[in-house]
Each structure stands twice: as structure tokens, then as C-alpha cells.
Write a structure and sequence with these properties.
The chain is an alpha/beta fold and 354 residues long. It is 27% helix and 26% strand.
Length: 354
């Protein structure tokens, strides 16, 4: 079926401008499904990395167009051989390298999950970011009633805060942008602060009842050295004066720090992507699986749980979507993210072939 189809795909040109290109739809290989997309969400941190520099001429032009996107939602319209869990007509969330900003996507079956009743395409369009946040909270290994700090209240940070609160943690969020703090205070966090302006030590001491944070998630990019130093000062401290607790790096930040006594006994962890399974081609196609008794939370089981939590409104996506554009308006969508980052969070694109 796909051999005769074409699709429109959002790309960045050599100067960082958004544009659509038309191309053949990839072959429907075994273990894959063909999805007519109804909503896709832009992940500004990774998809638009370097765009400002490209547009300002501060970086060399791209040699090839950069195809954009890796998370979406839509309807299954065909399935490849060996696909047993999905069938045409089902509404699904999907992600991965096949889930581009496009109207037709070919995606491995284990990177798709059926939408529960009441979950909209918009709600399911950012599944990669949802699972990234969920995985970060699991990596934090924090427990009911403990205090967790989230640094950076972009989409991943907001979602991490929501998952933490759903798990019974008390959450404070830091961000220098007022709009993000307002959203977090209403939907994601128990308290917020501006790390560039506020006196953090007394505010954090009051929030944690003078105990310090048990865990922190750093969901920021760029130079995070100063932020790391700020976080170290508000973590819980042992009687011998060493900072303790878990510190999870989920953003693409770069830091410099002195280890040993300089880091105390903090348990520093990286949280990469969405958990086990993603980027294992045989697993993605459904050719193999990890025994649940040993790997309780694969990317697939996490995706189904996240969608259930969205359906139950334990996790809320709608407040994080600040703008919607047609797929045809990809350049305007990127402009919005570049022009008003202080007022823009989730940006959803809607294919226009309906």
C-alpha cells in the first residue's frame, strides 16, 4: 500500500527555516504500522537545537535538510506482517524516528499504544516527552512523602513534576520564566521559585521543613554548572556535612564540578530517553520481549501506563499546550518558539489532509 503513497514532512532548510517536502511513504515492513497522523508535538530542545545560530549566520549552513519530529498520535490505517496487537481503525500514540511531523508515518508496533477513551490526539501527541519525564522520576528513586526539586519547567520538567506529585512526592519547581512558573504552580508543583532572583536557601528550607531535598531532576540544557551548584546547596545533608540524595540529569546540560568532597555523597544519575526497549530494533518490531519479572517497565508498558494516567487526569497535558498550528505552517510554529520562548511550551502541529 505504501509504495504508491506520498507524504509531506516538516524539515529545516540549510539556514534553519521550516519547510515542507514531499516524499514517498516508507515501505510497510514486518512489525510496523502505517498511521495517519492527527497531531504531532514539537520538542524544541532537541528538534530545534542550533536554529538560532543558523538563522543568525553564527553556525555553518546545514549540508542536508533536517527532518523534524519524533512523537505523534493518529489512526492506524494498515499493518505489516507479524503485527498482532494493532489493527486498522485504532487510535494510537506513537513515537520514535518514524513519527515525524508528517501526515503519514510508519512506526514499529512496540512504539505505538492504543489511546484510552477520552484521551485526545493532542493529549497523546507528546509521548516521547511524557515517557522521558516518567523515566526520570523512576531514576530518581524517591519515595512517598519525600521532597523533590525540578530544575527547568519546560515540557519535560512540568511532566516530571506531575509524575512526582502523582507518586506522592512534594515538589518544588525552579525556572526563571514567569509563565512557566505560573503553569507549574497551577498544575505541576506545590511551590515554585526563580533561581535567578529568589533567595533560594530560606525558601527551600521552609518548603522541606529544614530537611533539604531528597531528590532533584535537572531538566535544562546548555551550561548547567551554576544550576548544579545551587541544587547542591539545597539537598539534604548528613551530620558530617555531606550533601546526599539522588540527582537526575535528564536535560542536555553540560556541567563542571569537583568530585569527591566537592559532590559529597550525592547519587548522580543520567536518565536517557524513555526506558528499556527504545532503540532495540528487534524489540521495537515486536520480535522479542524482556521478561516482565525482570524488566517490569519497558517503554511499551510505561506508555500504556502513562496513557492510563492521562485518561484518569492524574497527568494533564492540555495546560502544557500553548500553541497549535497546521503542519503547513511549520515555519510560523518555529518562529513562535524562537520569538517568544517565555510564553511558549507545548506546540502541536495538525496535518491538513483531512
Amino acid at each position: 500500500m505504501t509504495a504508491t503513497l506520498t507524504r509531506r514532512v516538516a524539515t529545516l532548510d540549510e539556514h534553519g527555516r521550516g519547510a515542507l517536502v514531499e516524499e514517498p511513504v516508507p515501505d510497510l515492513e514486518p512489525g510496523h504500522v502505517l498511521v495517519r497522523l492527527r497531531a504531532t508535538m514539537i520538542s524544541a530542545g532537541t528538534q530545534l537545537a542550533g536554529v538560532r545560530e543558523l538563522r543568525a549566520g553564527a553556525a555553518p549552513p546545514l549540508k542536508d535538510r533536517r527532518r523534524l519530529g519524533y512523537q505523534a498520535a493518529g489512526e492506524v490505517i494498515d499493518v505489516g506482517k507479524s503485527v498482532r496487537r494493532l489493527q486498522p481503525g485504532q487510535r494510537v500514540a506513537c513515537f520514535g524516528s518514524g513519527a515525524l511531523h508528517t501526515n503519514l508515518a510508519v512506526v514499529p508496533q512496540n512504539l505505538c499504544a492504543v489511546l484510552p477513551e477520552g484521551v485526545s490526539f493532542d493529549d497523546a501527541s507528546g509521548m516521547n516527552l511524557v515517557l522521558t519525564a516518567m523515566h526520570a522520576i523512576r531514576r530518581a528513586d524517591a519515595h512517598l512523602g519525600e521532597y523533590l526539586l525540578v530544575v527547568g519547567l519546560g515540557v519535560v520538567g512540568q511532566l516530571a513534576a506531575q509524575f512526582a506529585r502523582a507518586a506522592g512526592l512534594y515538589v518544588m519547581g525552579w525556572d526563571s520564566l514567569p509563565h512557566r512558573r505560573q503553569i507549574a504552580r497551577k498544575f505541576s508543583a506545590d511551590a515554585v521559585a526563580d533561581p535567578s532572583q529568589d533567595d533560594l536557601l530560606p525558601r527551600c528550607a521552609a518548603f522541606t521543613d529544614d530537611l533539604g531535598f531528597d531528590a532533584a531532576v535537572m531538566a535544562i540544557g546548555g551550561d548547567g554548572t551554576q544550576a548544579l551548584e545551587q541544587v547542591k546547596r539545597v539537598m539534604k545533608v548528613s551530620p558530617d556535612g555531606h550533601a546526599m540524595g539522588s540527582l537526575v540529569m535528564v536535560g542536555g546540560l553540560v556541567t563542571q564540578s569537583r568530585w569527591g568532597a566537592g559532590m559529597g555523597n550525592l547519587d548522580v544519575r543520567s536518565a536517557a530517553r524513555t526506558g528499556p526497549g527504545y532503540h532495540d530494533p528487534a524489540w521495537e518490531r515486536g520480535e522479542t520481549d524482556y521478561p516482565p519479572v525482570f524488566v517490569r517497565w519497558t517503554t511499551q508498558t510505561s506508555m500504556r501506563t502513562a496513557l492510563r494516567m492521562i485518561a484518569d487526569q492524574r497527568i494533564r497535558i492540555a495546560p502544557l499546550i500553548t500553541h497549535r498550528f497546521r503542519l503547513d505552517d511549520i515555519e510560523q510554529a518555529i518562529d513562535q518558539l524562537m520569538r517568544e520562548p517565555d510564553r511558549t511550551l507545548g506546540v502541536v502541529l495538525t496535518p491538513t489532509d483531512e
